[in-house]
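queue> holo job accepted (iron/sulfur cluster)
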Amino acid sequence: MKPIDFPLYLITDRTQTAGRPLLDVLRAALAGGVRAVQLRDKDLPDGEYVELARALRVLTREFGALLFINRRVDVALAVGADGVHLGAASAPVAEVRRRCGRAMLIGYSSHGLAEARQAVRDGADFITFGPVFATPSKAAYGEPLGCEVLQRAVEALPVPVFALGGVKPENLPAVRKAGCSHIALISAVSAAPDPCRATRELLANLGNPLPTAVHHELRINSYGHYLRRRFDCRISKVNVDAGFTCPNRDGSKGTGGCIYCNNVSFSPKDTQPVIPLEEQLSAGMAYHRHRLGSEKFIVYFQKYTNTYASADVLADLYRRALAHPDVIGISVGTRPDSLTDGALELLTEIARDHYVCLELGLQSRDDAILARINRGHTVDDFCTAVKRAAGRNFDICAHLIHGFPGERREDFLKSADLIASLPIDSVKLHQLHAVEGTELAAMYRRGEFVPLTLEKYVAAAADFLERLPAHVTIQRLYGSAPLAICVAPRWGLKNNQMWFAVVNELRRRGTWQGYRVG
Ligand code: SF4
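queue> job finished
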């Protein structure tokens, strides 16, 4: 399905063209940058309507723009339109969605939030919402809703919301202030003396809605692109197992570990502590050089708790990793309650001439969940660790998991607010999955853990990204385990397949990372 990636939605009205032929006006608007047109003129006789729809199909194709037909699904199908635009007086959204499947985009005209919510639940891909301002063409719909109501709709709906009704260049700042970056209009373009110029000015005033940190194709601030921007070459992370253990296993913080923990699922098989660090590194670098053409490397101390040793032991391990000329830095995964002052000082010193990323496991922003999964630390421990690590010239990455038993989606989404409130540079997110040898696998077999469906996880990941500030880089959106030990869910995806599933969901919605950040 095509993405809703057009900020300006032009609706036709042949009576509002200042006496000029509608097709001439539309051609000028398309030349000015309109990328989606809705044929409305619903008072036309059937034959003329279909004829106009066909002409518009040809014209919009010429400019690579989308064509929507107001209400008439039969006409949309007959002329090969990209979508239909429905409303309260048209066929129900759910019925049209059933009839057309995902091949047809569906827009919906809504005059209130409850109505819009229902349309989205029924399958609408975007909403035109209004009238926001007073306008003669929408007088029949009552008093204008205003920008506060518009803002509530933008915040509440998981699809693009187009401000409709009386939108003009002079009130665009108020629309943007309401968090709305999509507009639908008629006369501001079609009645303008120069529709091409009017379109250009509106688009320029709307601004490029994607923040500069966000990759325009991916709609995400990906860590890979961040590294490329920062170091101007292709960089891969190479996992090593430095032989650490974990205080949540050896009894100093807890025993048994987190209920999902089986470190075999974390790492490639060649990273075992019996293999010297330098050999693990060589094998990992050779693999990434060959497979991805990587030029430089970040050594990732991943398995167990990689600050759980004396500062001397840590210094020896980290320095050995940094000794290779192609290694630009280290990434150190640890628990928030296992970060001694000595470890922090060591990382601070290394960060003076190398890249350093400190990866802290939060997993959930809910203390009750952290207790249930035997995590052995609290949200407050995490916040304290982040604050102690901040301002030391290294990146801080937070690890999160979605799908814990008893976790509500809206609570998970609040973790984006927590991340936004802290000096965190990067995030790793993955679905909760049970692997052999864990308490979670036993819970799954007893029916106490029901994994998320792939669709629910992808939707939640997209929701999460929309709430996450654009400056936070995304390192991971998926957790995988070897199929031999993966119990559930067994999606069998590769990392990049999940990545693109989430990217495609953002494209479908016409949103991006940070879209819902105020
Ligand atoms: S903190 Fe990490 S290594 Fe320790 S038990 Fe939990 S998941 Fe495993």
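queue> The chain has a mean pLDDT of 92.
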